[in-house]
Specification:
The protein is of the alpha/beta class. The chain is built from 16 helices and 11 strands.
Length: about 400
């Protein structure tokens, strides 16, 4: 009875949309005004102490283990919790309950491989043909995901104001779309670094297939291992979230050291306008060591390391749409995915993708592109028009 009273009290103020809740004892409650389009069913009780210690882990694991079912849009449900200022998801900072994270070179390698080395065959099932696993850029609503991902790469490369024969370093190069495009379309000598063996092997095969051995190199290295090299441009797409708060200054110090004077860098990463954050469930199951830095935190580290900010752009809504398409693709491929993964993993991954979409939709997190230069430069065009030409 006490557990149920606790849940009724918590749920009463948790959502900005009407929600129907079926409790484990067969009783039903409706919260909010209007006809509920979402129903939560608790097949069994979840200890209140687990919710109080870390709600994201307790509820995430309950969903993975089918102790909780959601009928209706899981994305809309989570977004409504983030949008509601009275929600338990907004009232408590759970970072104090997380184990201290380590971002040494060895630990970072382990963390990255846990997520990105799930198998290229798995990612191929629901990513687009470019194998790009980061926020796309939709110029219009008709863009396919593949077109939007190519738009994103070209948007980044345009911002850098590339010149023929320039050198480019991509920190955390994924499956290589950016460095391959830079070489093919801009005749730039591109180097990518990754900690994922699966990505490293994939890119090397692409380099050979496309006969780009003279222009593209990929290394299985940490950004902290690069020494005595200089590049005209640096990109880092979807990687800053893996750096960790204690290493952000080192990260930008290394970027400054690796750039030539007046060189440009484009950091494309999840940021949070309300300040840095972690999520217990995501850290445990999806992105070990993951940390979303605050915008003010990022700006502080950029400027303290002799880099100057030229441009900031929010692509929050683009990432919402990207993750929604990924989740749709994922669910359309369940027959094939079930040949590779068990049901608990499938529920976990579906929750991850929908929760990400909800977080971007609600503004709980953002995607920011930071264009920076090493020292002041007067070489870039006077207006942003060049970025779209």
């Amino acid at each position: 009875m006490l557990e149920k009273q606790f849940f009724k009290k918590v749920l009463r103020h948790s959502f900005s949309i009407p929600v129907k809740v079926n409790f484990w004892d067969g009783t039903t409650e409706v919260y909010g005004v209007g006809e509920p389009k979402t129903t939560i069913t608790f097949h069994e009780s979840i200890p209140a102490k687990d919710i109080l210690s870390n709600a994201s882990i307790a509820l995430g694991e309950a969903y993975m283990d089918q102790k909780i079912e959601v009928e209706g849009s899981l994305e809309a449900l989570i977004a409504s919790a983030y949008e509601n200022a009275e929600s338990f998801m907004r009232k408590k900072d759970f970072r104090q309950y997380l184990p201290k994270m380590s971002h040494t070179e060895q630990k970072s390698k382990q963390d990255v491989q846990m997520h990105y080395d799930l198998g290229n065959n798995f990612y191929k099932l629901w990513l687009d043909e470019t194998m790009t696993y980061s926020c796309a850029y939709f110029k219009n609503s008709q863009d396919t995901l593949a077109i939007a991902q190519q738009n994103k790469v070209e948007h980044i490369l345009n911002k850098l104001d590339l010149k023929k024969h320039d050198t480019l370093l991509d920190i955390g190069c994924g499956w290589g779309t950016l460095i391959l495009t830079a070489a093919q379309k801009y005749n730039v000598k591109a180097t990518g670094i990754t900690l994922s063996k699966e990505q490293y092997d994939y890119i090397n095969n692409k380099i050979k297939e496309q006969h780009l051995e003279n222009l593209v190199t990929v290394k299985l290295e940490d950004y902290r291992e690069l020494k005595h090299e200089k590049f005209d441009h640096i990109t880092s797409v979807g990687m800053v979230e893996h750096v960790g708060p204690e290493n952000l200054s080192i990260y930008f110090k290394d970027i400054e050291a690796l750039l030539v004077p007046k060189g440009t860098a484009l950091i494309h990463g999840i940021s949070r306008q309300q300040g840095g954050a972690t999520n217990g469930w995501l850290n445990k199951y999806i992105f070990p060591g993951g940390y979303v830095p605050g915008v003010a935190e990022m700006v502080c580290h950029i400027t303290e390391n002799k880099l100057q900010i030229i441009d900031l752009e929010s692509l929050r809504r683009h990432y919402q749409k990207t993750t929604e398409i990924w989740d749709e693709n994922f669910n359309n491929q369940l027959t094939e995915i079930r040949k590779l993964k068990d049901e608990r993993f499938i529920r976990m991954w579906d929750l991850y993708l929908q929760a990400c979409a909800a977080s971007f939709k609600s503004g709980n997190i953002d995607l920011i592109q930071y264009l920076v230069t090493k020292g002041s430069t007067n070489d870039l065009p006077m207006t942003r028009a060049y970025m779209y030409e």
